[in-house]
Amino acid sequence: MKIVEVRHPLIQHKLGLMRRAGISTKEFRELASEVASLLTYEATKDLQTVEQCIEGWAGPLTVHQIKGKKVTIVPVLRAGLGMLPGVLDMIPAAKVSVVGLQRDEETLKPIAYYEKLTGRMDERIAIIVDPMLATAGTLVATVDMLKAAGCKRIKGLFLVAAPEGLQRIEAAHPDVEIYTASIDERLNEHGYILPGLGDAGDKIFGTK
Ligand code: URA
């Protein structure tokens, strides 16, 4: 399975700022988006391009353009919305497929309460965005949903990932590619990542 911990100095610096206790909503939100941009840069390195002949300012020339139906970004409600602006800064023409999952109180399994996917999912690379890859319950369910819609190529961008979650997604969907700014130490007894970022959704939206 492809798991990339993107150890770029800019990413490490920004993530370090995000880990400070008492960080403001404004700063956390800005940094989440900036790190998302940098992860997008890394995760799209292998996109295929095609040559195109254009009329340039000094005459005809050949340029490279991204091939095919391109990508759809898949923010997972609600915290994934915090990474969306940064991803769209890098891929402004991307279609956005929003998903929302919540835990079923009886089975404890994540079930979809919202699913609005763009068309031709079978022709697109789906890029899931969610700040925290913790237990991977939500990620496994999101990938199940995308595969059911025909997706063949799926990547996931996470600010922070826990080893437990990485193991789980590798067992369930080894074909998914993971890009994260940090593989942290572990989950605590409440399913929070340590050292982690705390509740990323609350920090992005300024709730609680
Ligand atoms: N969700 C969060 O927001 N933080 C964690 O540490 C784990 C899941």
Automatic annotation (TrEMBL):
Means of activity regulation: Allosterically activated by GTP.
UniProt pathway annotation: Pyrimidine metabolism; UMP biosynthesis via salvage pathway; UMP from uracil: step 1/1
GO cellular component terms listed in the entry, alphabetical order: cytoplasm
Biological process terms in GO annotation: UMP salvage; uracil salvage
Single annotated GO MF: magnesium ion binding
Functional note: Catalyzes the conversion of uracil and 5-phospho-alpha-D-ribose 1-diphosphate (PRPP) to UMP and diphosphate.
Protein name: Uracil phosphoribosyltransferase
